[in-house]
Amino acid sequence: MPELPEMENYRLLLSEKITGRVITGVHINREKSINVSILLFCDKVMNQTVARIERRAKHLLFHLQNGRVLLLHLMLGGWIYFGREEDKPERTIKVQLCFGDHHLYFIGLRLGYLHLYDGDSARQQLSDLGPEPLNGDFTLDMFLKMTAGKRGRLKMKLVDQQFISGIGNCYSDEICFHAKVLPTRDMNDLAQPEITQLYHSIRFILQQAIKHGGYMENPVYKGDSITGGSDALCKVYDREGEKCSRCGAVIIKEIVSSRKVFYCGSCQK
């Protein structure tokens, strides 16, 4: 599932491609992927200019010139492709926005969605999300206050979108590896130096993942050489049975509260 770095990568790349461009066509192949009638969706989206693209947690918000917002959540298996008709992937297209002879394809939105809201309603949909971990106001002092007295497994708190927004299965494990703490630890067992390191690891891992295009391999457009570059940087996620790059021990996989957890039992304490 795309996490903060993948969605930020989409935002950066798509902003270059479609900001300031007019939507010349709309095709809805799965009505359940939108939240209004096809007729209303097309009426409010057609012939509108994309003013800007914003990211909030794992969502993208396409702000249109008329004040409407397209709120995207890809969920499991969803991805985006921008290009000509002849270049599109041989996959099921759920929603398609046309920009002249180029198109933005929303692929695999079986669980995901592209919903239409006005600006205030879009913000309300995201009002229960926790702080953005890369924003300037997400300080160490703030994180220490957030974690004070918190209980529960570290893994589950990191992926809790009401606690911190944007982190999922992949980067929670990579953050814990970088911080040298076990994701199966209880939050209230962590000492302050460990929490401090965890804060710095959150910011470092997410920034590195964005820089290298996230871990999901599907290109955003033809010739895209950025997307998916951070997969090779993952040290523990989906590396079960491989040797730890830091100490040589074998990477372990466990299931915690129905979530896969990958870690090194030797150098993560």
Describe what this molecule looks like in 3D:
- By secondary structure, the protein is of the alpha+beta class.
- It has 2 domains: 122 residues, Alpha-Beta Barrel (N-terminal domain of MutM-like DNA repair proteins), CATH 3.20.190.10; 125 residues, Helicase, Ruva Protein, domain 3.
- It is 28% helix and 22% strand.
- It contains 7 helices and 10 strands.
- The strands form 3 sheets. The protein has a 4-stranded antiparallel beta sheet with strand order 1-6-7-5. Strands 2-3-4-8 form a 4-stranded antiparallel beta sheet.
- It is globular.
- The mean pLDDT is 96.
Q: Low-confidence spans: pLDDT under 50, at least 5 residues?
A: none
Going by CATH, the architecture of the largest domain would be Orthogonal Bundle
- What structural category arises from helix and sheet content? alpha+beta
Give the CA-based shape: globular
Order of helices and strands: HEHEEEEEEEHHHHHEE
Strands side by side in the biggest sheet: 1-6-7-5
InterPro entries: FPG_cat, FPG_N, H2TH_FPG, Ribosomal_uS13-like_H2TH, Znf_DNA_glyclase/AP_lyase, Znf_FPG/IleRS
Keywords: DNA damage, DNA repair, DNA-binding, Glycosidase, Hydrolase, Lyase, Metal-binding, Multifunctional enzyme, Zinc, Zinc-finger
Pfam families: Fapy_DNA_glyco, H2TH, zf-FPG_IleRS
Family: Belongs to the FPG family.
